[in-house]
Input
Amino acid sequence: FNNLKVLGIRSEIDRGWQGMPYLLRNCPHLEYLAFDGILHCKTDKCGDACDCISREDKGRSLRSCPVKKLKIKEFRGTNRELEMIEHFLKSFPCLTETEIYARDNGPTELKVRKDFERAYERIKLYDELYTSHVNFLMAHSLIKSLQNREPSS
Output
């Protein structure tokens, strides 16, 4: 993986990220990392690739990874996803740009206005707190459905 600059990963809720630390440690020139979903099965083998298990000696795969741009698709607006995004922002030292794409079809907490506002405010805070510029993008259809809902729904 020595010359790999772009990596796309499809994450699934019933699969762990056991191979992620090895993969990231062995991509010394990786600049662009794209996830199709970031929810995955909790395991103690993820190392520092996620924050599933809180412990001191988790490894340094993210800190040693030179990723500059992070793209996350299928964002549902869950607290777990927001925690993962913050973990990435804290851990990738070279990260300058983060794009988060809201899931616009299927199950998502973003269709409930108060949940959308909570997620949106937290992402805005991430943009202010971390060196990476954080963009939150969503489909026009999701924006329209939110505009038609009452603020408390």
User: Anything to note?
Assistant: The two ends are 47 Å apart (CA to CA). The chain has a mean pLDDT of 84. DSSP finds four helices and five strands in the chain.
